[in-house]
């Protein structure tokens, strides 16, 4: 089959690789219907050291079950399923607590010996725990929105939930990427009344307004902080969702958060140390969030996607075939595409 | 009157200062019955640049109301009262949310124009909001425990509450100072079942056991982390209360916390940046806590102190007169005293 490999910064290739086969009785094989490129894929795409051997990439996909191992129940060939962006047994203590990203028997797509999502098919470890069956056909118009359940929508939701977003909440979302926009959507869905979206790409912030943003702040850094405080009577908001991952975004988050509030971050941190000294302490600001246990949220979010209450699939603004994946990376890195959908 | 001033590292003096008088109609005058020296007083005692003019110090006291301003109601001369370690109006939006440390009309003891607690008397701004009346006489044997309501006991409680300590919780407390020991007591009071206390002063950890610690870990740094994980099946505890304030203590806290758990800190951070990179993120660890809004907790904690259910006053292991305050600082800095009670 064909699959995507990354060999270094700027070097993504679609190549022929061995067809996946069942290894473990807990595996399933899934033919990929839709995959996509993630903002977090752009980190290795921007900085990975060149490597002789490429490594498989892609962690968001939705497809059709083709075969299941002997210990997999509840799934059958022909089922349309979505995979969360880490695989997990869904039965260990961490999974039962909703922290599938720390599953005792889980792991990541594209790790050694594991397929990535940007390919024609995937061997899914811990298939029964990992995959969620979708009550739609292979040609459903909902596939783009359903695909966001593998990462960006639950990630935005995780940001909002971790920071305690509830009815009537005032929220600032930092970042107008797909995750930031999904965080707006998730915060609105959870009942937030005031949602400040910090971002400067007008076509993205426009979608953010459709998703529920009440204010858009285009300024960045200290200017952005001043503006956000200005429109919130000087106090900032008690909930801040940091959806970028840079130190600057985190600093902005701490600048914007109201005393006693929480900064929730879901963008992979591109820093080792951050500004958590006396200022944060004296204002009783919390830092929460982390890599989103998407699997924990799919059942909760699915009904609203199925009935069209939310349309997170609107974050996809370009659709390509598998062979065009290298172009897709370029487009996202150049910010000419917000999020790229792949039809293998 | 006599009061304590700090002139620089190692230089604390008891001097004659003007008697306090009412300035604002919201003030009260309080004659100090008991005061004490705080672990956080040791930071300036250890590092303050020498200054020509000393500044007043001390933020924990309990006393008798001598006079009240025209706008103070509910308090009368002769009332025994305790003051939390910041003054606050108890009516603004932050105070109503229980965040008195961010009060819109509050401030700190010993700030310019405000008395410190380590003296014979104090002008209390926002007296009606700040002071809490105690149903005891001036000679009550409970005064030491009641005095802890001004800081260390609510601070330990704040650590425990912020991290979500509840019935059956497993908790690690880092630090065997007065705040660490009060955090043990608070965690136990909130229903924690397993309490690991990390500290190496056996007479302090002994009191920690009396307060509810089930395990004592004397090792520090990486060794301490290994030991704490060893006794918790490798996972660490979901709740970690960091009661020191150094970067090493924070690193230990992150090392000991279970995936998905929270580190709550209440020791004033002696660092500007901290280790909040990918490791914390990928494990969904939160950082919470901050300077404790003691005022918010006094009513809740008071009954258990009055009926002897808890005896936080046991953290005091030395009692001195006001003139001996410089010796008290030395004793706490040398760790020959845990916490020093002052009878002016």
TrEMBL record, chains A, B:
Classification via InterPro entries: ADH-like_C (IPR013149), ADH-like_N (IPR013154), GroES-like_sf (IPR011032), NAD(P)-bd_dom_sf (IPR036291)
Q: Which UniProt keywords apply?
A: Metal-binding, Zinc
Query: Could you confirm whether the keyword Transmembrane helix appears in this record?
Result: no
The name this protein carries in UniProt is IMP dehydrogenase
Q: Which intervals hold domain Alcohol dehydrogenase-like C-terminal?
A: 178-302
Question: What organism does the record attribute this protein to?
Answer: Amycolatopsis endophytica
A Pfam family (short name) is ADH_N
Give start and end of each Alcohol dehydrogenase-like N-terminal domain.
25-135
A molecular-function term among this protein's GO annotations: metal ion binding
Which cofactor(s) does the record list? Zn(2+)
Superkingdom of source: Bacteria
């Amino acid at each position: 089959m064909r699959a995507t490999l990354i060999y270094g910064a700027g070097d993504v290739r679609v190549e022929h690789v061995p067809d996946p086969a069942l290894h473990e009785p807990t595996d399933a094989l899934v033919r990929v219907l839709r995959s996509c490129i993630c903002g977090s894929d752009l980190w290795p795409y921007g900085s990975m050291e060149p490597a002789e051997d490429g490594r498989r990439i892609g962690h968001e996909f939705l497809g059709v079950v083709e075969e299941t191992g002997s210990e997999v129940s509840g799934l059958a060939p022909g089922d349309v399923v979505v995979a969360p962006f880490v695989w997990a047994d869904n039965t260990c203590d961490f999974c039962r607590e909703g922290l599938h990203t720390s599953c005792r028997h889980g792991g990541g797509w594209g790790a050694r010996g594991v397929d990535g999502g940007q390919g024609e098919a995937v061997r899914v470890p811990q298939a029964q725990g990992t995959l969620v069956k979708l009550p739609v056909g292979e040609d459903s118009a909902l596939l783009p929105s359903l695909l966001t359940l593998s990462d960006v929508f639950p990630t935005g939701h995780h940001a909002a939930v971790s920071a305690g977003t509830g009815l009537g909440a005032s929220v600032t979302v930092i970042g107008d990427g797909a995750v930031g926009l999904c965080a707006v959507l998730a915060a609105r869905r959870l009942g937030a009344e005031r949602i400040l979206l910090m971002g400067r790409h007008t076509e993205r912030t426009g979608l953010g307004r459709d998703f529920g943003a009440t204010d858009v702040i285009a300024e960045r850094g200290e200017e952005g902080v001043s503006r956000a405080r200005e429109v919130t009577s000087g106090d900032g908001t008690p909930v801040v969702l940091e959806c970028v991952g840079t130190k600057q975004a985190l600093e902005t988050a701490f600048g914007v958060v109201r005393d006693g509030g929480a900064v929730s971050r879901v963008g992979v941190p591109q820093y080792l140390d951050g500004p958590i000294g006396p200022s944060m302490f004296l204002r009783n600001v919390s830092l929460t969030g982390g890599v989103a246990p998407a699997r924990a949220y799919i059942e909760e979010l699915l009904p609203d996607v199925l009935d069209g209450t939310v349309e997170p699939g609107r974050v996809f603004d370009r659709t390509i075939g598998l062979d065009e994946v290298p172009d897709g990376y370029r487009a996202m890195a150049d910010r000419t595409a917000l999020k790229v959908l792949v039809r293998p």
